[in-house]
Every structure is written in structure tokens, then in C-alpha cells.
Write a structure and sequence with these properties.
InterPro entries: Amino_oxidase, FAD/NAD-bd_sf, Zeta_carotene_desat/Oxidored. This protein has about 675 residues and is of the alpha+beta class. The chain contains 21 helices and 26 strands. The chain has a 7-stranded mixed β-sheet with strand order 8-7-19-20-21-18-24. A 5-stranded parallel β-sheet has the order 10-2-1-16-26. It has a 3-stranded antiparallel β-sheet with strand order 5-9-6.
């Protein structure tokens, strides 16, 4: 049987997912011959991480990576990889449970005006453990979100039932009970969504009548007012605009901005840019041109995608709402994927960068793929891993280094000394060109690279197909920045008493923080030196000037990240870690090591989900070209926002379009 040759261009989650799905069974492996191509020395895309051997084998990430508990497809992929891979007996991660840990707390930061001053408060939200294992099929009924929404509002009120009765008595809480009873009576049948909207508006009217007294009451009154105001507007919008229309409901409002949609549904001006609203804008870097410091002025997020994500985050997670990785994302996700792909016979070609896609004369299919072979290899093959110890019991991990093993590369020392970054499109390094012809070298191609990375090499496709051109040109993307600190005091000694958390909605531009001290056993620091590991990230502005940018610009911009981060820490860290402030500024002597990153390369940009852009995205199986398929979180799939879940789902759907069948990836762990 002649196999169909599939060329996957891109080594991020979308490409890896496509390759894993297309080789998931023996029957598929008999039909398809898969080659995965990626530039540089490692897989991962935006999820790539590296180990710095000169700095305690520290983990260096693109940013703060955490899986959410509703990432069903991403967890299925990871669970399946660990179940299939036959790890060495002393390998630290034998199962996916070894590689991930649950996190039940989320921290939102809110500035509260009181007595003529504005002070930042941390709202530490503890989520309950839910039944199920991440990656298992979801069992939420057709009216499940409706029941959860009303239940959440009732629980919020119950949590604050000690507030003065003369205030809470005016909230019309009996209307919430009527809504709950109606949903319960309906079961899986049709709901009267209009009735529920009317009941919620009664509660909203009563609440807004006591809003000012609540704000003046206490910080707790302010917090209750904020979440109640947000929750009511969100619920009214969901019952009015989304839930009556089934799966199409979210798409109906993707032309609107999320914040403006909340305002349309009655959120007060006081809370229209509060922490619950900011949550997704900060988490998903949703600011036009990276301009996050101007408040909501440049904030953009498609309302349908935002509403769906919040519902899934709050009510559809399994186990915990968040799952942190116990090593770098590369070590945790892409290492097992690599070994499973190799085990299945997938040919992985590193150090190859796409330079040009050429179409047939009629523009119907991809006829030729041109690749820049960045380097030649000393032995013709490349071993991408280093072994790094894990903990004190002799266990270890296969990890991706933060730079190539130059000894395996012809003239590696010269390339290194020239400052060439083999992952950066702005640095040119070539050992020759590989030209692949359709019908000879490949039959089908999966474009697993984001629009910004396709804009130049796919110019011929853009000329041949207007929809493809619109997708590339309209899909917004933004640079991001990341800061990692390895601290000599523990997090408790620094003054944070609330325990492990993931925080967002704080001062721009480093608005998000992850407490990552659990990673210390995964690194190799001298005993007693590093006692806390902390990650920050946020949007970043575009650099001055226009592309093409010079080689090394991202690294030089990292120096600006360091400068700006120092100023940010001096001004803002005292709220989180009061014991790290000395003489009014951040005490740098408590920092044992630090890493600063500016993500500018087209393949590293975060793909945003702005209003009126979702409809220009193309589905993985609908590229407009007969033999081309798409994979990545920039395609049209589910909620169409940048995430590991959508990247994996997109790769799976691309593979299913190629195979013309549904492919079950439910793991057998």
C-alpha cells in the first residue's frame, strides 16, 4: 500500500498534535507517512522551554504556562503520550500525574478607593475540587451552564450573608430562587430564557439600589459589590444573547467587545474595568499594539470567546481549575511527544526554516515547499536532549537546552560566536536549500505556523486565495514579555501568606504572576541558595521602527524588559511581597538569578481574539487549497482564543480532515 506523505510545517502544539493524531493507530500509520519540520534545535513554538546549564539548569520559558482544568484535548494528548511512552525506570515523570500538579487558588488584584486614597487588594479565590480527570469527556448537560450561573450567584450571596440585612434584603433574592427552580424543573428540556433574564434584572435593580452603601461599608462590601455586579451582568448577557442559541450563541456576539457587552447588560461604570473584567484581557494579552497601560482604551476581546472561556473556567474544569507543570513546558509536554512520535516512525527534521510556499499554476494547491537548511550536522543526526536531575533520589528528566549543542553542528562554534539565534527569523544562517515537490516528496502539507510567520513565505497563497489573505492580514498578534526570578528567601519570608497561586489583573505591564517554587527540585541550584521561584508576564509594545528587524533585536529588547521590570518591581512589588522592599525599592540582593525575555519573532507572538476577527479565521480543514491544512490556535475551532487547548484541538481537526475520519484520542492510562 502506497502511503500518503504528509509534511507538517511547525513544531509547536498545533503541528505536534497533528502529527500525533495522524499516527494514533496502526491503521493510520499504514496509511500516512508523516514528516515534522521545525526551525532551531527544539520543539515547542511558544511553548518551548530551555535549560541553562550555566545557571543551575534553570528553566527558561517564553512566559507563564499553566493548563486550565477544561483543556480536554490538551490533557488527552499529554495523557496519551505518557501512557504510550516507555520511560526509563528512574525517569522522574512516569505518568501525567507526575508531570502536573493541581492549583485551586486564583488571585485577582483590585485597586479600591477609600478615604481619598487607592489601595491594591488581593482577592484570593479558592475553587473546590471537582470530579473527573482532565481529558475525560465532558458530561455537562444542555442546561448545565444555566444551573451553574444561577448557583454561583446564590453562593456569592450566601458567602456574604453576614452583611447588614437592611442592604441584602433589597436584593430580591427570591428571584434567584425562582430562576433556580425553573431550571431544575426543566431538566434537560427547553428553558424560558426570557423569564430568567427578567428575574435577573429584578435582582440587578435591587442590587444597584444598594450599590453605594455597599461600597462605603468596608473592603469586603466592595469585593461583594464587584463580583455581584459583574456576575449579574454576565449572567443576564448569557441568558439573553448566548444560551438560547446553543452552540451558535457565542459566535453571535463575537463582533462585540466583552467589556462593552457587559456594559450593554447592565454592569455599572464603577466595575466596568474591575478585576473580574480585566481577568481575560490580561491573561490573553488582549491589548491593541500591546498598549496595556492606558486601562480599557486599547483593550479588545471578542465577547463570545470571552464568555465561553469564563464559563468553561468556572464550571467545566475537572479536578482543579488550574494545573501547573512540574518542570518546563518543553520537558513536561514536548519531551514525551518527541519520543512517541519517533517511536511511531515520524521523521522529525530540526534546523529547517520555511522560506517559500509555491502554488500550482491555477493556484489550487501547494506545489513546492522551499526550506532553508540552517546548519549541517556532524553525524547527520541531532540528539536534542540533556539529562537533568530531579530531586534528591536519583531521578532525572530529558530536557531541551536553552541553546543548541554546538558540538553536534558543523562550524557550531563559529555560528555561536557570531551571535546567531537559530530560532529567530531575523538571524540568517544557511547550509543550503531543500526544495520539496508535491507528488515526489510530499502529498499533503499542514501549515502549523501562525499567520505572522506565514505572511512572507506564503505570499503566493495569499495572492491565490482572498480568504487566506484576509486570515493572514486580519488576525491580530502582539509581542509579550516575561520575567523569572529565583529568590533567596521563601515566598512566606517575602511576605506572601496566601500560599501557591496564580495572579492577574495587577499593575501593567507585568500584570500576571505565578508562584512557581515547586520547580526548585527540577533545577540544580547549590543547596540552600534558591528558596522561591516566581514568574511574571504581560503584553509588550512593538519596538521602534519597522520590520525587518536586525538579528539579535529580541535579545537586546530583553535588556529593556529588565530595565522596565526593575522599575515595576520598585514601584509595585511591595503589595505582594512587603518584605522584599528596602529603603522604598525592591531589594535586588534577595534575587539569586533572573531571566528576562521579549517575544518578538513571528512564531512567538501571541495571537489575539479581537472583536470582528473570529469570522476571518479559517478552519483546519478549510485552507482554500486542495492539499493544505491548518493547525494552530489561530484557526477557527472552538472558542478561537490563544491557548494550548485550541492549538491541540486544531492539530487534531487538521489530522481528522486529512484522514477523513474522527480519531479518538481517549487515553488508556
Amino acid at each position: 500500500m502506497v502511503k500518503t506523505r504528509v509534511l507538517v510545517l511547525g513544531g509547536g502544539l498545533g503541528g505536534v498534535s497533528a502529527a500525533l493524531t495522524l499516527t494514533a493507530t496502526e491503521a493510520l500509520r499504514e496509511k500516512f507517512d508523516v514528516t515534522l519540520v521545525s526551525h532551531g534545535w527544539r520543539l515547542g513554538g511558544k511553548g518551548a522551554s530551555g535549560r541553562n546549564a550555566k545557571q543551575g539548569q534553570r528553566i527558561e520559558e517564553h512566559g507563564l504556562h499553566i493548563f486550565l482544568g477544561f483543556y480536554d484535548n490538551a490533557f488527552r494528548m499529554v495523557r496519551g503520550a505518557y501512557a504510550e511512552w516507555d520511560e526509563p525506570a528512574d525517569y522522574a515523570f512516569q505518568t501525567w500525574q507526575d508531570a502536573f500538579r493541581p492549583l485551586y487558588q486564583v488571585t485577582l488584584m483590585q485597586d479600591i478607593p477609600r478615604f481619598g486614597k487607592t489601595r491594591w487588594h488581593s482577592w484570593n479565590l479558592d475553587f473546590p475540587e471537582r470530579s473527573g480527570t482532565p481529558g475525560d469527556p465532558r458530561s455537562l448537560g444542555p442546561n448545565g451552564f444555566a444551573a451553574f450561573l444561577i448557583g454561583a450567584l446564590q453562593n456569592l450571596v450566601a458567602k456574604h450573608d453576614h452583611l447588614p440585612g437592611h442592604l441584602t434584603a433589597k436584593l430580591g433574592l427570591d428571584a434567584l430562587e425562582k430562576a433556580r427552580a425553573h431550571i431544575e424543573e426543566a431538566g434537560d428540556g427547553a428553558l424560558d430564557h426570557g423569564l430568567i433574564v427578567d428575574l435577573l434584572k429584578l435582582v440587578q435593580k435591587g442590587f444597584q439600589a444598594v450599590l453605594e452603601p455597599l461600597l462605603k461599608l468596608s473592603d469586603e462590601g466592595w469585593e461583594f459589590a464587584c463580583f455581584a455586579d459583574f456576575g449579574l451582568a454576565f449572567a443576564i448577557g448569557c441568558f439573553a444573547d448566548v444560551l438560547p442559541y446553543g452552540k451558535d450563541g457565542f459566535d453571535r456576539i463575537n463582533g462585540e467587545d466583552f467589556r462593552e457587552w457587559l456594559q450593554k447588560n447592565g454592569i455599572s461604570d464603577t466595575f466596568a474595568w474591575s478585576a473580574p473584567v480585566r481577568l481575560l484581557y490580561d491573561m490573553c494579552f488582549s491589548y491593541k499594539n500591546g498598549e496595556a497601560t492606558d486601562g480599557p482604551e486599547n483593550a479588545r476581546f471578542a465577547a463570545g470567546a470571552a464568555a465561553e472561556i469564563l464559563l468553561l473556567m468556572g464550571f467545566a474544569y475537572k479536578g482543579a481549575p488550574l494545573w501547573k507543570m512540574n518542570a518546563g513546558m518543553g520537558d513536561t509536554v514536548f519531551t514525551p511527544a518527541w519520543f512517541v512520535l519517533k517511536q511511531r516512525g515520524v521523521d522529525i527534521k530540526l534546523f529547517h526554516r520555511l522560506t517559500k510556499l509555491e502554488t500550482s499554476e491555477n493556484g489550487a494547491w501547494v506545489e513546492r515547499v522551499r526550506l532553508n537548511r540552517q546548519v549541517d550536522l556532524v553525524n547527520g543526526a541531532y540528539d536534542p536532549f540533556v539529562k537533568v536531575g530531579y530531586g534528591d533520589d536519583g531521578k532525572w528528566l530529558y530536557c531541551w537546552p536553552s541553546e543548541p549543542d554546538w558540538s553536534q553542528i558543523v562550524d557550531g562554534d563559529k555560528i555561536r560566536d557570531a551571535g546567531i539565534n537559530l530560532e529567530s527569523v531575523f538571524c540568517h544562517c544557511t547550509a543550503g536549500e531543500s526544495v520539496l515537490e508535491v507528488g515526489k516528496d510530499f502529498d499533503l502539507v499542514v501549515l502549523a505556523m501562525p499567520p505572522a510567520a506565514l505572511a512572507d513565505p506564503a505570499a503566493a497563497l495569499m495572492d491565490a486565495n482572498l480568504r487566506f489573505k484576509q486570515m493572514v492580514e486580519v488576525t491580530p498578534a502582539v509581542p509579550t514579555q516575561a520575567v523569572q526570578l529565583w529568590m533567596t528567601p521563601t515566598i512566606e519570608e517575602m511576605g506572601w501568606k496566601a500560599g501557591p497561586t496564580a495572579m492577574t489583573s495587577y499593575v501593567e505591564e507585568l500584570d500576571s504572576w505565578g508562584e512557581m517554587s515547586h520547580l526548585i527540585p527540577a533545577e540544580s541550584w547549590p543547596p540552600g541558595t534558591v528558596k522561591a521561584v516566581e514568574y511574571f508576564c504581560g503584553t509588550a509594545r512593538w519596538p521602534a521602527g519597522a520590520p525587518p528587524y536586525a538579528c539579535g533585536l529580541p535579545q537586546r529588547m530583553a535588556a529593556d524588559v529588565r530595565r522596565d521590570a526593575t522599575q515595576w518591581l520598585n514601584a509595585n512589588i511591595g503589595v505582594l511581597w512587603p518584605n522584599t522592599v528596602k529603603d522604598g525599592v525592591f531589594d535586588q540582593s534577595q534575587v539569586y538569578s533572573s531571566y528576562y525575555r521579549y517575544n518578538l519573532d513571528p512564531s512567538e507572538l501571541y495571537v489575539q481574539c479581537f472583536p470582528a476577527t473570529v469570522e476571518t479565521r479559517l478552519k483546519p480543514g478549510d485552507s482554500g487549497f486542495v492539499n493544505a491544512f491548518l493547525a494552530g490556535d489561530w484557526t477557527r475551532t472552538w472558542f478561537s482564543a490563544g491557548s494550548a487547548e485550541i492549538a491541540v484541538l486544531s492539530g487534531k481537526q487538521a489530522a481528522e480532515a486529512i484522514a477523513r475520519q474522527t480519531i479518538d484520542l481517549t487515553p488508556s492510562d
